[in-house]
Automatic annotation (TrEMBL):
L-methionine binds at I440, G441, S442, E493, D608. HAMAP family: Meth_synth. Residues 435-757 form the Cobalamin-independent methionine synthase MetE C-terminal/archaeal domain. This is 5-methyltetrahydropteroyltriglutamate--homocysteine methyltransferase.
Length: 763
């Protein structure tokens, strides 16, 4: 009998209940007890949703991030928050979000201001975790409170609980040694705490623990491979059975290592790593459980159940009781329930599956394996018909787009002159001061803006009223920016719900969900549009807004677009053609928008590629191929303009060291990046003239409510000026300001503009 299980459930809730509970608490509108109760309610509901499975994840719920949870479980709190004397959850939020120094002097060492932990992308997903911090002296100490509490709740609810934790090797691998010490040297101190944790869980009657080691799908050097042997060699005496879970990619050369680790079971991603499965079966000990992740936990397409069974049935024969069936990875990366979607096009909807539907696919597959296909004949037939219909739909295939794509050649991506000449022409036209100031695009998405948008969507106000409301917001942003004395203005993106959805909504080949939210970090969610067909742009998408904004000011107004690579990487994309092909279609569509903006007199155009880096394949051997087509797509999009038109691009939370040549190859005139939390360390990549064009290293951490001081920003820029010639530096925040409030933004930008003025005097 094949058993079924799940690796993790989307914690945010079908209607983003967690987000609203978190934010109410952070704003002081609800109590800690209310927040905790909302969490418990969500967990209860999600366990009910998964009741049909043989094993259900516990501990996958988090009030912010599962990696930060693990840091707290292991007692690995940054030194700066150790003196805190309030509730653990409050301290946890201090690490997650940072805290302004507003508490009394006397409390500066315990509960005063504190910097937020660094955040980075979880493998190749759009989920961000809080990076564990280490030093050579890091000690660990078990705090199993959160996990035990959730386990007790689950057990009381009759859930067949399988606690989920981040494994020790992955935990060290994804963290950062603040003093550049060797993280692996901490393993001997870390393992006893894991052993103690497993023992604690065993004492609570737990049989299986899922221990996530996704780092096994990346290239590992000998030291890290050795760490796996050491870690699991030591944990093998535990009384619980370990299901070691890998996902997001292929094990490849790590198959043998994974197979010989002394654990009771192994979970692998059998969607992305299907080729690993046969060698793995050969290599595994005869009593090991093999969990096959056959339902894609990263996309929203229905699984081809019949084809999957064709592949699975012989394996089930071979593995018998040892076979488990699951989604490929945690369902954290997909929305909760397709049934909530009332407005989605019926044809497209028939091709999709969200978390609950994916779990149902797992059930159907297991039933077909255990009782024969006839037991689920109706489900299999209906699935087969939907798969077939999608393949043949004329809505997926547009011959005109395919023809345009066939004509793309390299000249489309060339500017007329090299950067130095363009820069001189742009300087003559724009007349900007040294250390020019700008922002990254969005201004606060206020309650008024959101209300106007939801009224418009609900048909309560008409198009004209909505337009007027958005124009009023744009006018406000322009007024504020003029008062602040910024040099290159933005329109503020009031009309955009989201930087990708906004464009997707206006492109043909895209569909939209109403509730298809996926957690990005903390309470932030994105609703990735669904790229289902060939892409085209029926008409201009942003020109009228930018033209209006420019009409209100004599300062240069930046046109604001999202680049093709980011649109691709933040969408649910087709699984029936290569990503590169979908990306080139997007590039052609956005290029038309760039040219239309230029035509409308816009002199500065920013094309955000926030997600360029996150599209990097997990394995380095595949990086260059991706970078080549990604850069080509950016160049096709941007480089049709005249030399006088200044192209900006923007990237967030990126590290550039290893991709700097490709970033330079994009040839944007100006790049703005996120650097403030890393104390300008990220700029090292741009040092030594490796990056020849202009750079705006972010000096204002927009993820935190803290107001940066002028001195702090001057100091950061001085560090930047040690690495980059001052003539090529811009002064700007790390990213857009849409998640902040005006009363935070105004003082922060006031300080930022003063910082730029001070720099003009002194550097
Ligand atoms: N222009 C976008 C904004 O300001 C950029 C956001 C991003 O890079 N994530 O909101
Ligand atoms: Zn950004």
């Amino acid at each position: 009998m094949a058993r079924t299980h799940n690796l993790g459930f989307p914690r945010i809730g079908a209607k983003r209940e967690l987000k609203f509970a978190q934010e109410a608490y952070w704003k002081g509108q609800s109590s800690l007890a209310e927040l905790k109760a909302s969490g418990a309610k969500l967990r209860q509901r999600h366990w009910e949703n998964q009741a049909g499975l043989d094993l259900v994840p516990v501990g996958d719920f988090s009030f912010y991030d599962q990696v930060l949870d693990m840091s707290f479980t292991l007692g690995n709190l940054p030194e700066r928050v150790r003196g805190f004397h309030g509730d653990v959850l409050d301290n946890y939020f201090r690490v997650a979000r940072g805290r302004s120094a507003q508490a009394a002097e006397a409390h500066a060492g315990c509960c005063g201001g504190v910097a937020a932990g660094e955040m980075t992308k979880w493998f190749d997903t759009n989920y961000h975790y809080i990076v564990p911090e280490f030093t050579a002296g890091t000690e660990f100490k078990l705090d199993a409170g959160r996990l035990l509490e959730q386990l007790a709740e689950a057990q009381a609810q009759g859930v067949k609980a399988k606690p989920v934790i981040v494994g020790p090797v992955t935990y060290l691998a994804i963290g950062k040694a603040k003093d550049d010490s060797d993280r692996l040297a901490l393993l001997p101190r870390l393992l006893p705490v894991y052993a103690q944790l497993l023992e604690t869980l065993a004492a609570q009657g737990v049989e299986w623990v899922q221990i996530d080691e996704p780092v096994l799908v990346t290239e590992l050097d000998a030291a890290w491979q050795g760490a796996f042997e050491t870690a699991y060699g030591e944990l093998k005496t535990s009384r619980v059975k370990l299901l070691l879970a890998t996902y997001f990619g292929q094990l490849l050369e790590n198959v043998a290592l994974a197979a010989r680790l002394p654990v009771a079971g192994l979970h692998v991603d059998a969607v992305n790593g299907r080729d690993d499965v046969l060698p793995l079966i050969e290599a595994l000990p005869a009593d090991s459980v093999l969990s096959l992740g056959v339902v894609n936990g990263r996309n929203i397409w229905k699984t081809d159940l019949n084809a999957t069974l064709d592949w699975l049935e012989p394996l089930a024969q071979r593995l018998g009781e040892r076979l488990w069936i699951a989604p490929s990875c945690s369902l954290l990366h997909v929305p909760v329930d397709l049934a909530s979607e009332q407005k989605l096009d019926a044809e497209v909807k028939s091709w999709l599956a969200f978390a609950l539907q994916k779990l149902d696919e797992v059930r159907v597959l297991a039933q077909a394996l255990n009782q024969g296909r006839q037991a689920v004949r109706a489900e299999l037939d209906a699935n087969g018909a939907d798969i077939q219909a999608r393949r043949n739909s004329p809505r997926v295939n547009n011959p005109a787009v395919k023809a345009a794509l066939a004509k793309v050649d390299a000249r489309l991506g060339e500017r007329q002159q090299p950067y130095a000449e363009r820069a001189a022409r742009q300087a003559a036209l724009l007349k900007l001061p040294k250390f020019p100031t700008t922002t990254i695009g969005s201004f606060p998405q206020t309650a008024d803006i959101r209300q106007a948008r939801s009224q418009f969507k609900a048909g309560e106000i008409d198009e004209a009223a909505y337009q007027a409301a958005m124009r009023a917001e744009i006018a406000r942003s322009v007024r504020e920016q003029e008062a602040l004395g910024l040099d290159v203005l933005v329109h503020g993106e009031a009309e955009r719900n989201d930087m990708v959805e906004y464009f997707g909504e206006q492109l043909d080949g895209y569909a939209f969900s109403q509730f298809g939210w996926v957690q990005s970090y903390g309470s932030r969610c994105v609703k990735p549009p669904i790229l289902f067909g060939d892409i085209s742009r029926p008409k201009a998408m942003t020109v009228e807004w930018i033209r209006y904004a420019q009409s209100l000011t004599d300062k240069p107004m930046k046109g604001m677009l999202t680049g093709p690579v980011t649109i691709l990487n933040w969408s649910f994309v087709r699984d029936d053609q290569p990503r590169a092909v979908s990306c080139r279609q997007l590039a052609l569509a956005i290029r038309q928008e760039v040219l239309d903006l230029e035509q409308a007199g816009v002199r500065v155009i920013q094309i955000d590629e926030a997600a360029l880096r996150e599209g990097l394949p997990l394995r380095r051997a595949q990086w260059q191929e991706y970078l080549d087509w990604a850069v080509e797509c950016f160049r096709i999009t941007a480089n049709g303009v005249a030399d006088e038109t200044q192209i900006h691009t923007h990237m967030c939370y990126s590290e550039f060291n290893d991709i700097i040549a490709s970033i330079a190859d994009m040839d944007a005139d100006v790049i703005t990046i996120e650097t403030s939390r890393s104390d300008m360390e990220l700029l090292d990549a741009f040092d030594d003239f490796k990056y020849p064009n202009e750079i705006g290293p972010g000096v204002y951490d927009i993820h935190s409510p803290n107001i940066p001081t002028e001195a702090h920003m001057v100091n950061l820029m001085k560090k930047a000026a040690e690495r980059i010639p001052a003539e090529r530096l811009w002064v700007n925040p790390d990213c857009g300001l849409k998640t902040r409030q005006w009363n935070e933004v105004i003082p922060a930008l006031t300080n930022m503009v003063s910082a730029a003025r001070a720099l003009r005097e002194s550097v």
